[in-house]
Amino acid sequence: MAVRVGVLGATGAVGQRLIQLLDPHPEFEIAALTASDASAGKTYRQASKWRVDSPIPEDVAETTVTATDPDEVPNDVDLIFSSLPSSVGAEVEPGFCEAGYVVSSNSSNGRMDDDIPLVIPEVNADHLDLLEVQRDERGWDGAMVKNPNCSTITFVPTLAALTDFGLEKVHVSTLQAVSGAGYDGVSSMEIIDNAIPYIGGEEDKLETESRKLLGEFDGAELSHNDMSVAASCNRIPTIDGHLENVWVETADDLTADAAAEAMREYPSLDLRSSPEPLIHVFEEPDRPQPRMDRTLGDGMAIAAGGLQESPFGLQYNCLAHNTIRGAAGASVLNGELLLEHGYI
Amino acid sequence: MAVRVGVLGATGAVGQRLIQLLDPHPEFEIAALTASDASAGKTYRQASKWRVDSPIPEDVAETTVTATDPDEVPNDVDLIFSSLPSSVGAEVEPGFCEAGYVVSSNSSNGRMDDDIPLVIPEVNADHLDLLEVQRDERGWDGAMVKNPNCSTITFVPTLAALTDFGLEKVHVSTLQAVSGAGYDGVSSMEIIDNAIPYIGGEEDKLETESRKLLGEFDGAELSHNDMSVAASCNRIPTIDGHLENVWVETADDLTADAAAEAMREYPSLDLRSSPEPLIHVFEEPDRPQPRMDRTLGDGMAIAAGGLQESPFGLQYNCLAHNTIRGAAGASVLNGELLLEHGYI
Amino acid sequence: MAVRVGVLGATGAVGQRLIQLLDPHPEFEIAALTASDASAGKTYRQASKWRVDSPIPEDVAETTVTATDPDEVPNDVDLIFSSLPSSVGAEVEPGFCEAGYVVSSNSSNGRMDDDIPLVIPEVNADHLDLLEVQRDERGWDGAMVKNPNCSTITFVPTLAALTDFGLEKVHVSTLQAVSGAGYDGVSSMEIIDNAIPYIGGEEDKLETESRKLLGEFDGAELSHNDMSVAASCNRIPTIDGHLENVWVETADDLTADAAAEAMREYPSLDLRSSPEPLIHVFEEPDRPQPRMDRTLGDGMAIAAGGLQESPFGLQYNCLAHNTIRGAAGASVLNGELLLEHGYI
Amino acid sequence: MAVRVGVLGATGAVGQRLIQLLDPHPEFEIAALTASDASAGKTYRQASKWRVDSPIPEDVAETTVTATDPDEVPNDVDLIFSSLPSSVGAEVEPGFCEAGYVVSSNSSNGRMDDDIPLVIPEVNADHLDLLEVQRDERGWDGAMVKNPNCSTITFVPTLAALTDFGLEKVHVSTLQAVSGAGYDGVSSMEIIDNAIPYIGGEEDKLETESRKLLGEFDGAELSHNDMSVAASCNRIPTIDGHLENVWVETADDLTADAAAEAMREYPSLDLRSSPEPLIHVFEEPDRPQPRMDRTLGDGMAIAAGGLQESPFGLQYNCLAHNTIRGAAGASVLNGELLLEHGYI
Are D341 and D145 in contact (CB under 8 A)? Predict the structure, then answer.
């Protein structure tokens, strides 16, 4: 029987992607949709300006949207997906956890908290057990797991494949799609025939979230990886798909061939949304490209290419679909992991 | 009296920009236009598909195009600007030098030759005296000076401003406009809603040309700078203006403030096409941007911004107009330098 | 058992789409791929620069490409799909028909010939019987059917739905995607931040093909519809999907409501590639839009919207995926029709 | 001595263009800048997010912005340029006229009022005398003149050149740039790789404003032109420049040659911002194009091309820079006309 799920912030860009992914999902059944108070009481069709490239599922369209409040969500909902703006998330998500809901959240609030697992299942599924610590400390019946920022998710799986070589220094430049900023985040006048070398707060997310994700959890405490990461973030005129240039310096020698092999063999999981292979490594030097490769693995694969030895260690490019693998799909995959690990 | 000049490869993208810049130039007078044999004998209007954003100068339009051959160019032409494809340049440029013409070339052939000065006037005007060595070795009556690749020109002036701090390691990611590949270089199907993390040969140009430009000329020999440079190059859907993310590690401590001051104070030259200031340093973290800032200093300024201390030294962004400062304007400026230094 | 098919011009943009559509098609099996002489003898992977947004089918990738010559195609191939440049098509397609092959061609040569059926199955399937006349006149064992130009296919089904009202005058402005010109047809420098109000020969195709498609076939001769059509064609910076503004003046009164009903009820066919509904009529005034709606009906539906009464009759917008419904899918659908009507 | 002018709504997209045009204007001197209450008291640099492609004029940057209220504007200001949102314009513009200010407004409110002159100086400068009627009726010391909508301005001058042939029916399809909607009007996710066949209220503006502009003023009353106009409006991914496809049916025969001649000879005015020629007629069938031709005549020219005889009268394309000729420049030109006609 499918788990009944709710979506917080269901009308936004990530909320729409969540609905697109959850509607056909055999393990989950959409049972609650919340949005701002202004939308409460409307049908989802009325409340949302649907802009995903497949029609609104008919039953979702007729669902009545409620306010984002634990009291408005049916008790038989067992799992909550949250794609709220971080300020709203900070305010309302803890209330859902207190009320007993398990929350898989894409919102950035709390991601770096010591007792909140920040998880990419193929990378650090074992961090999920931090939830025991979390429940002890916070006294929640529910639980909160976060997925990282879209630009972090894009490059961390490739680094995870290289940890055996001793990660030391990482430089990363991002070329990010406009959908990462939400539907109204980037105006057309800002970005057509242009690029913007700044995304507020983004560099810090890449630098800190990556070290938490690749850290070690000893059952009680989580230590962050001690590599150093320097990020430079750019917005470019693409719709979907974040492309990243990466340089990695490692303690041990690392050839391009060894890196390609490590990435190709890096395992995916036996979860519905985890693609096989997880990392698709291209031979062609001009790949991956956002429009060509963002839908690999139904948007859940990581694409890598251009592996070569640079003057300073390994150099390569990687790509992921920022609103699927980087946001909505990441939350759904964390939901699948929560289910498998018995938290639901 | 204006110097009579010729343009080799006058119908291409850089050739058109050269004409746009040379036509109103008080020191130069267009006296010869060459193109492929197929165009020889036609008027320039017939031979070129003019696509620059100002009308063809009327007198240029009616000029008869000749083949790219020293015998076809009038003897009273004193300076040749070349924007030939590098394979053609390698074949025909030496003939012009032998025939006594001074050539300011944007073509990539020969840039790394020991006796060919690769010059950005504000950075290494003193390298021009390598022409004495060149004439000795090659027995040319003419001379050949090259300007670097467009992506090299964008970041080297900012590095030049920082040499006192002891340049050691440089990482650079480029976001390059489509005009850098010429009119037919990038098809629309390749680049709309996309980015391409590969430009053939480009990374090597950034890595090697920068070290030659920042090298020392002792009057006899040119030694290259011993910094190391690692480059990653991307094509994005912008028309003009290359944007670059740079990280610099230096021997001495380098704060963002000290770097900004060094860039702001880096001198321009008293040449017509050298802008004042040479480097425009933005305070706003989201600048420079290609569409907003590529025309600073009539397209000849370097824009920099986002200066900050990263985990590994200084981090910043820079931008230049790739077909003006990065190509046609670079050649014209070298022409002005040749004139000032008495080579014409 | 699946019909064995060949693809002429298999490496081009439409050829790649044909392979993408034919590979999973249960009624057809790809048995021959042809291209220019330069590609003959190579595997398809070597010969094509694959740029469709799904991977090359593995068995197709390893197929050896032959020259475009009837002698090079196995005899047990029963149906040929052609997406050759029209000049090449004019030269080689008749040879295939003489050699006994039935050809479903997307190439523009011969479309207006009196004895060549120009067919959109949902619009004028009965024109297919013109093949009897064709065989009589040309003495072919094979046969040739054409689908119209992509911009013609976009608006003709909507007109077909309105024929009962007496079509008299039609104005149509097109906003066409770059893929309509093939992979290298439109350079990025031509179209980024731009639009081009001219596509050579396109206006004439809309004006004449539409009248042939809506004409009557009496079993012996085809008379063209006597409506008048005036077209104005524009290229805009979209990848796929032609959008068209249409005004129709009819002999009888035609309200927007009646037109919407006629379009909604216009029947599709019981062929695999004919979508249900054929015409998707939007209520939202700002639809259809290329990126949102081009994949309706797997790219085979026609989308319409903005129906309103203008000062001069009915006004509306329509949209179709130009390389699926407008080209490769159109040829495949004609192949299905040929099969159903017993020509294969 | 320069006329002291104020700009209402100075921080918006058109407000910034107004400042860019007025700052170097020898007849006008910027003496007041107004914006929303939230901006009042700030310097212009603080209040505006400057996004025009030339730096903020230094003296403007330091000017203190006031609320949009006649009491906040110095009495010695003689002319007001208004680029307010229409709802705000409707509310506050009359107050400025009552307080004695002459207002040249780009806002759409009131454009179709019987006693408000809607003026393109080269087309209907004589309508300006409607101001006498206006003052009689409204008892204003000041006066109000409007310029039309950007998409109207683009095609009306070409129609004005053809009035002698007896305009009867006009069809027009527009391909409009995103800047027409203001800085945040069109999000990047809406328009990249897309087109939107709907701009709220725009079709009606083309259909009605054009008839008012080409109407006759007999000294007491203005009668509208009795041609019929049907418009279909599209937003496309270009930054600046509206392109329009036009069909005109006339009472008298009209050849493409006669139309081209009439357009070429249509006179400009002896006003600073009126370009010579007013209408630039291209021979090349693929022109005008937005990126290539929008800056003709410093953005104040009308470009036309593609003139041909269609099945229903004349067909052609036209183009104008929508934020210069179509908005800010239109208001400035009306200001110059007011000055010349002695209203200031």
Answer: no
Domains of chain D (ranges; CATH) run: 3-148+327-340 (3.40.50.720), 150-321 (3.30.360.10)
Query: Is the minimum CB–CB distance between B187 and chain A shorter than 8 Å?
Result: no
pTM of the model: 0.96
User: Using alpha carbons only, what angle is made at residue C212 by residues C207 and C214, rounded to the nearest 5 degrees?
Assistant: 100
> Distance (Å) from the C-alpha of residue A178 to the closest C-alpha of chain D?
7
Distance from the Cα of D72 to chain B's closest Cα (Å) equals 31
Question: Which helix or strand (DSSP H or E) is residue B6 part of?
Answer: strand B3-8
- Looking at chain D, which residue has its C-alpha nearest residue B291? D53
Most B CBs within 10 Å, among D45, D193, D281, D298, to test the B interface: D193
Q: B208, B96, B93: which is closest to B148 by C-alpha? A: B208
Residue pair D227/D170 in contact (Cβ under 8 Å)? The answer is yes
- Residue D191 CA, distance from chain mean position: 24
| Whether residue D51 has pLDDT greater than 90 | no
Rg (CA), chain C: 19
Contact between residue D116 and residue D96 where contact means Cβ atoms under 8 Å apart: no
Strand locations in chain C (E): 3-8, 28-35, 66-67, 79-82, 102-105, 143-146, 167-176, 216-217, 222-223, 228-235, 242-250, 279-281, 302-310, 313-320
**In this structure, how many other beta carbons lie within 10 angstroms of the beta carbon of residue B66?**
21
Cβ–Cβ gap A234/B228 under 8 Å: no
Stretch (H or E) spanning D257? helix D256-265
Res B167: pLDDT: 98
Q: Residue A81 contacts by C-beta under 8 Å, 6 or more apart in sequence?
A: A5, A6, A7, A8, A18, A22, A103, A104, A105, A106, A328, A331, A332, A335
Distance between first and last Cα of chain C: 13
CA dihedral defined by C269, C271, C276, C282, rounded to 10 degrees? -80
Instruction: Provide the sign of the torsion angle of the four alpha carbons A223, A225, A226, A228, taken in this order.
Output: negative
pLDDT in tens, C191-216: 999 999 999 999 999 999 999 999 99
Q: Crossing angle of helices B202-213/B150-160, nearest 10°?
A: 40
CB neighbours of B250 closer than 8 A, spacing ≥ 6?
A: B162, B165, B166, B167, B168, B313, B314
